[in-house]
Amino acid sequence: MFSAESSVVKSLANSRIRVLAMKLHLPFLPLDFIKRNSLMAQFEANTDPCQIWLLQSAPGYGKSLTLAQWFYQKKQQKQKVAWLTLDPKENDPLRFVTYLACAINSADASLANAALKALESDVSAQDVFQLLMNELTELDDTLYLALEDIHHLYQSEILELLEQLLTYTPKKLRLYITSRKQMLLPCARLLAQNKLKLLDENQLKFSQQETSNWLFKQLHENSQTSIVNKAQELSQGWVAGLMLLQKVQPDLNALDLQGDESILLDYFSQEWHSQLDEDEIRICGQLAIIGSASPEYLDVAFEQTNSHDIIKRLLTKHVYVSSNVSHSGWVELHKMLQVTLHEKSNREYQEAVYHRACNWLFDQGKHFRAVEMALKITDKQQAANILELCAENLIEEQGVAQLLSWKQQLPIEVMTNSPKLIIVFSWALVFAQQYDEAERLMLQIDRFFVPSQPLLNNEMSGQLFAIRAYIARSRGNIDNAIALCKQALEKLPLSNYAARTITFLNLSNIYMTLDKIILARDYNRQSFESARSAGSMPLELIAIHEQARIEQVKGNLMLAQKLVDQGLSLSARLKNRDHITAYGRLLIYKGYLCWLNNKVVEAEQYLLEGLQVSERCHDVYLIMGYVVLSNLKRHSNQLEEAYDHLAYAEAKCQSWSVPSFIYQPWLTTIRINLLIDQGKLESASRHLKKMYALIDNNPYALSPEHFPALRGLLDVFYVRAKSIGGFHKDALNLLEKKLANSGPSQQGFGLIFIYLMRALLRFQLGNEDEAIQDFRKAVEMSEHENCIMPFIEYSSGMGALYQHLPMNLKEKPFVQGILKHIDLSKVEGPNQAFAQARSVIS
What we know:
This protein is mostly helical. 62% of the residues lie in helices and 5% in strands.
């Protein structure tokens, strides 16, 4: 047998064979290891149908540590686990089967003994392997076997053995393989049979949350969302990339790359450059210049041939060139490699490349990409010409971030020389809530009105009316907004579905503000029909979101949930949904609805995903997400984090030049509730007084887009403050007044809060029978929709009320569900004084 190559050896109990022990050990998990729980869930969910897992990616994506976490979990569950780390020396067949047998024996000393005994005799590797296969086939318990770094194996006889193992995998064997390169074995049939599951860079990369967790372990504090976003943007979830970034910028608070950092250059020289030939390096350099590309695109842009074969080789090598997940057949470099490779070559040469690239993209109908490429050319007129052709699609997708970026790159004289560009950029500014700038830009269109072109005049007028209606609605000028919407619909041709759909949505939102739910539903239906008839999925999703909001306000939470789920399911048809405004709103609203059902973990997950999309899309709807996140933190008594979420939303709106009247009412109202939690009643009362004064000046100042019930929240917090301050009768009087003057919207969701709060106040004032009657009404309205959050919101100190409930009410499944989620014995909490003992009431 071969001799020990190190002093660290393993002597097997029943054999004279000695092997390197370290090759059979699971890797140690470092102290700053980030648990890959989502991948663990995938392993767990697919254990039965899938017998083989292949983790195949470039270095640094955490393949080995991910498997190690999974194997440690299995060891804790008393499962049999075997680990074998491979290196080039295992290309000796006898050595390979020796280590394989030893690894299996290390999992259970009763296993592989026949194979080990045969190894001490003069037998072939194939015979030993067959003994192992026979024994594994007879296993009663599951064995988890990891083969790490299988890319080192290339010897033909060993590849034949591996192919047998993959093709005839014993029933009780679960095989996990890691590789830095595409395996030299055919896997297509196994994938088709669902016997093998492949995880590549796209599945192994860190999620946004995992990047945030990694930053926390490095900085020992929660990072601002902007830092997490920047780290995720540069690293693209590449774990080794995060470590390299930390070496480049140790404090991680000012992340930026120039491309000439020696740390990056050294890393890519060793792990990337040394793996490639000249043609492959050339193609990577070209990708660094023009970004994501297909082989045909590269051939045209750089006047060459055979890019297809070279790209195919690059993909098999896993050298930081990966498939574009949203564009089939296209590839792209990792962001950090692209920055490193991008050279300031001859400007004339680059311009020629950009021209050819732009023309090809335009001919292929890829207008957005063509605009991006044209903007790299010195003469911006070509970009403006292409932009005119895709303006309608950009309005449809509400591609605000994209349009604002292009607006910064286009000279003002080019932009104002086209009525279409004036309109499309006015829409972009309106969607970004930059109303003053939008109005200034619209003034530039007057000179394009020509008496001899009435149809063009009508369309331009209709667009201007629609834009100004949107502005009027946001500023609270409701009557003016309605008149402008109607003028817009009269002028806009039926073919202009984008502007018409947005106008219908605006009217629906207006009538939501006015509590005219029937009209709101009617205009929402028209917006949906307009979007559906035009085949516009993004606008259709916006209409679904608005319909869900209407149903939620009416108290139909289950229907709202169903609509949101339908919208999210439809969004899967969009290739670029992570850049679509409607998708971000649906995710955030899904999180909000989960919160109402007290599904806290799900709520946070949806909110964080939605906030990523909204921030990417420059959508002010992110306020909604951070408000709900703030409430999640508040409910777990993390008030500092609750304030932080509101502060970040405020800072983001300020950085986007959003007028304060758009976001301050939201944030001030939510901060009032936090002040009440902290017992700062005087400060809360001052803010309440200011907010009510704001309403006196403008009745719709507290009806921002997407959340018209803000006035109702203010009243809820007023009641809380009055009750905690001991003014229970004042609080009760406000509730009585709200019930007497309630509009249509109060017939649903808002009414649950009113009845629940009045039940608590009446109980405190000694009116127990009336209190129980109100509580029963709140339960009846909530149980069908499983709207549990209001009861949890006012849980602290409610023990006495629950003790007085009639048995038939207390034993209702919904009430029992409430009791499972709250601890009524606790006296502390933000609502302690709200439900304090009656003895303190005068």
